[in-house]
Amino acid sequence: MEFRLIDRIRERTAQQREDVRLGIGDDAALLAVPAGQELAVAIDTMVEGVHFPAGTAPADIGWKALAVNLSDLAAMGATPAWALLALTLLRPDAAFVDGFAEGFAQLAGQYRLALVGGDTTRGALTLSVAVHGFVPPGQALTRAGAQVGDAVLVTGTLGDAAAGLRCLPSRMDIQATARDFLVNRLNRPTPRVAAGLALRGRASACIDVSDGLLADLGHVCTASGVGAEIDAALLPCSPALLGAFDEAAVRDFALTGGDDYELCFTVPAARMDEVRDDLAKLGCGATRIGRIVAGEGVRVRGADGAWLEPARSGWDHFAP
Ligand code: ADP
Ligand code: MG
């Protein structure tokens, strides 16, 4: 049974690549890293009931399991190449596997990413995806390079995914098109791979917003040994979000919601306009939300100019 499931996955995710010398089917895959490239490697796990609600469509789970990993490669400025998939299922559910593989393949195909192996076991529904990408030596974007005076920017819009989760119960009174948009942002995040590549050699630091802007920008500050000041009024929010929730809820979603998989990055102020123009051409756009300052931690200025004191800084799996 396990092997039939693996076959179904292999058929649905088939991708020809020169650098895959041996893919699914042996004891290990054999992969050729292109000469002169470094390998960027990341893994993320999604557990039903923790990272996605029970009842999420299998194709959405497949898309998202890959998207959250591609987002990590994007944040490093790496070009996606290969993935491994560890699949844990309560029972050998072919319909689930087909749907999952379809959603996974829809996103993988956009990057010619090859699924080269994995593991299939029985247990509570859990998906682990590991991704591998290429980056020229020394050019990876890290969290560590932000400098005092740099501008802080973010791609796309913030808060949509958290709002989507909030309006999942269909009893919430919200316009259907807005609800569909927000739920789609939750279930089918767009990894900002092209933006990450465009930021290579230009951004001084970069991170993807998975746990919430405050938490993730906080990681940049810690790694870089700096602080950041953000203006709540500058946070980019979608019309759907702004139309469906009041100002305080919008601000909370945008600052602490997480699951948006946008890139938050810093650039020297002198290069900001040029970088912003280039990201606009890529379709996601980028918005300046604040600046890097001496000190530590992230402070947020409210619309009235006073500093805010947010209740929580993001999602922490081991918080009490
Ligand atoms: P082994 O016992 O030697 O680890 P498995 O029976 O677990 O091998 O897997 C057989 C082949 O199928 C391997 O190439 C493995 O990488 C691949 N594989 C297993 N599960 C998955 C999965 N969920 N997705 C992709 N490839 C898988
Ligand atoms: Mg083996």
Tell me the layout of helices and strands.
Layout: H1 2-13, E1 20-22, E2 30-31, E3 38-47, H2 58-76, E4 79-89, H3 94-110, E5 114-122, E6 126-135, E7 151-155, H4 160-166, H5 176-187, H6 193-199, E8 205-208, H7 213-224, E9 227-231, H8 239-244, H9 247-256, E10 263-267, H10 272-281, E11 286-293, E12 297-301
Parallel strand pairs: 4-5, 9-12
Antiparallel strand pairs: 1-2, 3-6, 4-6, 7-10, 7-11, 8-10, 9-11
Helix pairs in contact: 1-3, 2-3, 2-6, 4-5
Helix content: 25-40%
Task: Please list the strands of the largest sheet in the order they lie side by side.
Answer: 8-10-7-11-9-12
H/E order of the elements? Answer: HEEEHEHEEEHHHEHEHHEHEE
Report the total helices: 10
CATH topology of the largest domain: Phosphoribosyl-aminoimidazole Synthetase, Chain A, domain 2
Largest sheet: 6 strands, mixed
Name the CATH superfamily assignment of the largest domain.
PurM-like C-terminal domain
Radius of gyration: 20 Å
Count of domains: 2
Overall CATH class of the largest domain: Alpha Beta
**Estimated structural class:** alpha+beta
> Hey, roughly how much beta strand do the residues contain?
15-25%
Low-confidence stretches: none
Distance linking N and C termini: 40 Å
Q: Which overall shape is indicated by the principal axes computed on the Cα atoms?
A: globular
What small molecules accompany the polymer chains? adenosine-5'-diphosphate, magnesium ion
Q: Just name the CATH architecture of the largest domain.
A: Alpha-Beta Complex
Report the strand count: 12
Overall pLDDT: 94
